[in-house]
Design brief:
By secondary structure, the chain is mostly helical. The protein is built from 16 helices and no strands. α3 runs antiparallel to α7. It is globular. The N and C termini lie far apart (about 45 Å).
């Protein structure tokens, strides 16, 4: 029992600050959506797609790539090879910065891309305008995510703070200054980062693509609003599970770096149980107060009614989501990102095949999912 409480304390030492900063950062998005929702349906639809689809593709991919740093740093720290951590951090800056530049066309050409896939013109144009303002936010991700993992701490102000903290000698064992060794082994780092990026991107993509699909429905604004509210609530809860993902990855990688496989298994078990308890709490809140949650974002009675209908599905999704990210954290700590990415691709393919071969349709009379 003492070991359980001790391990739980160590997990929360890592997860606590991470959860707080993630919630604080994501709350900026939630507040923006809430204000937009009370301005009008078109404004909320545009803000929702821009922040929960476009920026989330960038967020999921680069966050996943940054998780490779957890694998390398965690195992090096467990093996007491502290000097390698600073080199790994510099490699991650190089790899993720290049990848973030490759993702820029998604923001620059958001309007024509959305028009091409059949989104309403006025919605697509509004989204394109919002996407341009999100570019600085996108370019901060390579430094934000990697520094968070190096220090296990959000935005440009905190990035400069974390950067200064590292460079000013507060990490003497792990930061020995800039090194040409950062350019050695980039391909190996890129392979692990790419697998991590695909793993987390697909996990984010499954549900966010529903917002794009809802754009093809009758009364587009109402459908997009309702789904975006549900996904925003889901994503808000995900900030907590992502903090536990980071903690699970660190604890497992530290234990494996110290050649303690039994300790790694124990850390994984405690992380999953902790997340499951939190999931049950969120499940009960959503079941009890679905309409109250919707009124944070909008006063439209049609949207509130649709969110109320989706509450049961949302609550079950939130409950299951509390388990899956922590298991991904265990995979990150173990260096199994490529395997999980293959599983995710296979699962996505199975879903596409199932939907294409099944008699799935929408209710054209009520226009509901």
């Amino acid at each position: 029992m003492t070991e359980t409480w001790l391990e739980s304390f160590k997990i929360w030492q890592i997860a606590g600050p991470s959860i707080f900063t993630r919630l604080a950062m994501f709350s900026m998005t939630i507040v923006t959506q809430a204000f937009a929702g009370h301005l009008g349906d078109l404004n909320l639809a545009a803000i929702s797609i821009a922040t929960t689809v476009i920026i989330s593709i960038s967020f999921g991919f680069l966050l996943g790539m940054a998780s490779a740093l957890e694998t390398f740093c965690g195992q090096a720290y467990g093996a007491k090879q502290y000097h390698l951590l600073g080199i790994y951090l510099q490699r991650s800056w190089i790899v993720l910065s290049l990848c973030s530049m490759l993702l820029l066309p998604m923001f620059l050409f958001a309007t024509p891309i959305l028009k091409l896939i059949g989104q309403p013109t006025e919605v697509a144009e509004q989204i394109g305008l919002v996407a341009m303002w999100l570019i600085p936010f996108h370019l901060s991700f390579p430094f934000q995510f990697t520094l968070q993992r190096f220090l296990h701490f959000s935005w440009w102000v905190s990035i400069f703070g974390m950067f200064g903290y590292c460079l000013c000698g507060e990490c003497p064992l792990t930061w020995s200054g800039f090194s040409s060794q950062a350019f050695v082994g980039l391909w190996e780092f890129f392979k692990i980062s790419l697998a991590s990026g695909i793993m987390l991107l697909l996990e984010n993509f499954y549900f966010r693509v529903l917002i794009i699909v809802s754009g093809y429905m009758h009364k587009t604004e109402v459908a997009v609003e309702a789904l975006s509210i549900c996904i925003s609530i889901y994503a808000w809860e995900s900030m907590i599970t992502l903090g536990l993902l980071a903690a699970a990855g660190v604890r497992v990688s530290n234990q494996l770096g110290a050649n303690n496989a039994k300790g790694a298994k124990f850390s994984a078990t405690i992380s999953v149980l902790t997340s499951l308890v939190l999931g049950l709490c969120f499940w009960s809140i959503i079941i009890a107060f679905p309409e109250n949650l919707a009124t944070i974002f909008t006063s439209n009675s049609s949207v509130i009614a649709m969110v109320n209908e989706l509450a049961v599905i949302l609550s079950l999704t939130v409950l299951l989501n509390c388990i899956q990210p922590v298991l991904s954290g265990v995979a990150v700590g173990s260096g199994w990102q490529a395997l999980v990415a293959v599983v995710n691709i296979g699962y996505l393919g199975w879903n596409v095949d199932w939907y294409s071969s099944s008699d799935v349709h929408t209710d054209n009379h009520h226009h509901r999912m």
